[in-house]
Please model this.
Amino acid sequence: MTAGLAALALAASPALWLGPRPPRPVTRLVTVAPSLTETVLALGAGETLVGVSRFDEAPEVRALPRVGGFVDPSVEAILALAPQLVVVQKSPGNQRPIETLAARGVPVLALPLTSVADTADALVTLGELLGREAQARALVKALADARASQRSLAPKRPARVLFVYGFSPLVVAGPGSFAAELLDDCGAANVAHAATTAYPVWSLEQLLAAPPEVLVDAADTPKGRDALRALLPRTRWVTLADKDLLHPGPALARALPPLCAALRDRRATSP
Model:
């Protein structure tokens, strides 16, 4: 997770096409990120998927071939599936394999998924490619409606919140990231608001200089968690019930209300 987020911090730029353009609508698709797979499924186009990443957990794709991960997609595994289109999250980390795929004549679309706007753009783009424009518009509206609804419930005094993706090193949600934007929708004050990247590594000095009232624990490994708890005895910890807030796609619309509810709950709780 941490390596992928560091790469994403360098990738906040427009979508990138490589290789030939695919036919429309696309009927054989490979996705190399769970958020992209979930978007295709939410669009009602799950039958187009012929391969997914090794991190995909959706039951609808359990039987599909795996083609590697976010930064290490397997060119050979993808070529064997004869896709009409491969969709990846845009990142310097996967540049070499996707350029190789394009050179072999495979259409590749690299989508930035750093911000909420990126997520909405990806929904629209995939909806157009898959002939599911109406479904895409409905998903974009659902996300916008969820954000507007939570903004209307924002507390008068914002809680100071740190959204943590990893503890060793301490990687947090900085300005321009979709998680930071969702914190703002909840009426929270992001402790890392002055960072210079979307996914900064937060130092111990920065942490102790401005300790959060609430820490959202989105880390996928426990390494470093206990040590940080000891340093923040007055901080309330919120642990995610699922991975929806880690997947910039349709899942954000359903992940936002429980996040905001947890941040508004001032009771001292700890998992």
